Automatic annotation (TrEMBL):
Belongs to the OpgD/OpgG family. This is Glucans biosynthesis protein G. GO terms for molecular function: carbohydrate binding; catalytic activity. It is found in: Periplasm. It holds the Pfam family MdoG. Residues 25-502 form the Glucan biosynthesis periplasmic MdoG C-terminal domain. The lineage of its organism: Bacteria, Pseudomonadati, Pseudomonadota, Gammaproteobacteria, Pseudomonadales.
Length: 515
């Protein structure tokens, strides 16, 4: 070997040593599995035994994973993995693997990793049951304290939090025919691969294999914990059949009641919700649209057309404990979630589904992106986006935010003395309004769809709030929903985001069954 050849050999060898061995598993491997799976007929997963599926919420919660048994505990990685027990609403076991420099290793079920509420229940749990999913922990606040920050479990659901927050709303891998009378399909993540991070790394990668009657999918999640948790998502979808309503990057939340609705009889808490509004950014038009959430009397769907999606999310804009007064649930600490496309998603619409609910235990809110172009059997689609769980402040929004929406009977004294009408009061904060004097020439702009009447509207500065307020009186056409859009303007230009509202004909605040 010549000296020159030796130098080339040594340099190449050193580069391989410094960079480490090539990963034994990657996104392409999951893509191959998803593509192969899509060519075969769908086979439903085997559910957990009936006695586990019938566990009550409290009984299921009493099954505890032992933290000292966490995967990678004692190693140099900052991430640890805790397993989810199968049972109750986690009906289907999943297959788990870990990926490291030595290869891919199965994470076989071991029921001794759990503490069960009774010896009898522990004996009945099959030795080959399988885990329902997993939780990730990481030192978010202190180096010696481990915090749960991300959970994958149930269908294609995953939930996350930022530093100092409580778990609330969820994201999903996909939504299929959500809100349609034909019924919703719930694809599941059948299999996960957990890539062991390098020592000291603050990034972890998770791969998931999605399967359902209508499609399969390969997913890669790059996980970044912190003040806000961010997941960079890459997916390739293979369609077994045509889908009527495909929902990309879906979010699921709970809205029981808020300041814009009547408090149910017997409830002492002022508000109960994980999220209180949908925010949409159209980067082509520059519009930021805010839609307060509702718990309707009957299912309702809103379709918000967007030319160029900059992002959408379900936000919790109520940050004060006094809004909820709940010392256990701490709804004031629930995260917001913001979805940002990684590439141009083209034209389409953000769909909001609101489902009637008589309890806070039910998730009754869904939001997702519906592309205009439909999908057919045999098609393949690539998708990339990020979803961030954290505080409700969305970077890049320059306008004043709608922070409170109040709705009342427009026929009442002080409401407008207009039979059949509704009074809406909306408070705005921040943006350009924060620097305007109380006598600034801020005006309101309001439109209504259909045959609804706008009886009056105006903007005013409220000294007690140290901010600006929109007040409007509107009357819907008989038996028709009331759909409104409004903003605050100065010199012909918007200084606030667009506030929009949809009140169904059976959501009559003057004759509500919840009074």
């Amino acid at each position: 070997m010549t000296l020159g050849n030796f130098r080339i050999f040594f340099s190449t060898f050193a580069l391989l040593v410094l960079s480490g061995p090539v990963s034994a598993f990657g996104f392409g491997d999951v893509v191959d599995r998803a593509e192969t799976l899509a060519k075969s007929e769908y086979r439903a997963p085997r559910p957990a035994p009936e006695f586990l599926r019938k566990l009550s919420y409290d009984d299921y919660q009493s099954i505890r994973f032992r933290p000292e048994a966490s995967l990678w505990r004692g190693g140099d990685t900052r991430f640890h993995v805790m397993m989810l027990p199968t049972g109750s609403f986690y009906r289907y076991p999943v297959t788990l693997h870990q990926v490291d420099r030595e290869g891919v290793h199965a994470l076989n079920f071991d029921k001794s990793l759990f503490d069960y509420p009774s010896p009898e229940l522990a004996k009945r749990v099959p030795a080959d049951l399988g885990y329902a999913g997993f939780k990730l922990t990481y030192p978010l606040s202190k180096s010696n304290v481990r915090n749960q920050f991300l959970v994958f479990g149930g269908a294609s659901y995953f939930r996350g939090v930022g530093t100092g927050q409580r778990f609330g709303l969820s994201a999903r891998g996909i939504a299929v025919d959500t809100g349609l009378s034909s019924g919703e399909e719930f694809p599941i993540f059948r299999e996960f691969w957990l890539e062991r991070p390098k020592g000291g790394s603050d990034v972890m990668v998770v791969y998931g294999l999605l399967d359902g009657p209508s499609l399969t999918g390969a997913y890669r999640f790059e996980v970044h914990p912190g003040k806000a948790l961010t997941l960079d998502v890459r997916a390739r979808l293979f369609f077994r059949s045509r889908i009527t309503q495909l929902g990309l990057a879906p979010l699921t939340s709970m809205f029981f009641y808020g300041e814009n609705s009547i408090r149910p009889r017997g409830q002492w808490r002022p508000e109960v919700h994980d999220s209180d509004g949908l925010l949409i950014h159209d980067k082509e038009t520059g519009e930021w649209l805010w839609r307060p959430l509702l718990n309707p009397s009957e299912l309702q769907m809103g379709f918000h057309q967007v030319k160029g999606l900059g992002g959408f999310g379900l936000l919790q804009r109520d940050p004060e404990f006094a809004r909820f007064e709940d010392t256990e649930a701490r709804y004031d600490l629930r995260p917001s979630a913001w979805v940002k496309p990684g590439e141009d998603w083209g034209s389409g619409e953000v769909v909001l589904v609101e489902i009637p609910s008589e309890s806070e235990i039910n998730d009754n809110i869904v939001a997702f992106w519906k592309p205009r172009q439909e999908v057919s059997a045999g098609e393949t689609r690539d998708l990339s986006y990020s979803v961030a769980f954290g505080r409700p402040d969305v970077p890049g929004s320059p306008l004043a935010r709608a922070v409170r929406t109040f709705v009342g009977d427009g026929a009442q004294p002080g409401g407008g003395d207009a039979e059949g009408a509704y009074r809406f009061v909306v408070d705005f904060e921040g943006g350009p309004l924060a620097h305007m004097k109380p006598d600034a020439a801020v005006v309101s702009e309001v439109t209504a769809s259909g045959d609804a009447e706008i009886l009056e509207h105006f903007a005013e500065y409220v000294d007690a709030r140290h901010g600006w307020r929109l007040s409007l009186l509107a009357k819907p056409a008989e038996g028709k929903p009331l759909e409104l859009r409004a903003s605050l303007n100065l010199d012909g230009k918007p200084v606030s985001e667009t506030w929009t509202y949809q009140l169904g004909p059976k959501n009559d605040l003057r004759n509500s069954s919840r009074q």
